[in-house]
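My main concern about presentation is that the manuscript never shows what a single data entry looks like. For the editor and my fellow referees, an illustration may be useful. For illustration, here is how one protein appears when written out as sequence plus structure tokens:

***
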Amino acid sequence: MNAVGPAFIATPMTNAQMEKKSKEKGISFDEAVQQTLDEERPGIVAKRRGRAEEVAAAVTFLCSEHASFITGEFLRVDGGSVMTMGA
């Protein structure tokens, strides 16, 4: 069995969180996203939210014949956030 671990993906859920934050702080949606990246997700080296299509591509790969000899893996779709934890 394999698994995919997405982080801070642009979805209706995170959109709602960013809309709430923007209203509470009196900032734009984009500023709320940037503030979240800077303050709560500083390890995301891609400096953006991921896209659902990027997560879907990882899942599609793991379900494909191309991954037929891959087992027991946890594929992070996280913009490099785990990569920076030890840095």
Observations:
- DSSP finds three helices and four strands in the chain.
- The helical segments are 12-25, 29-39, 52-63.
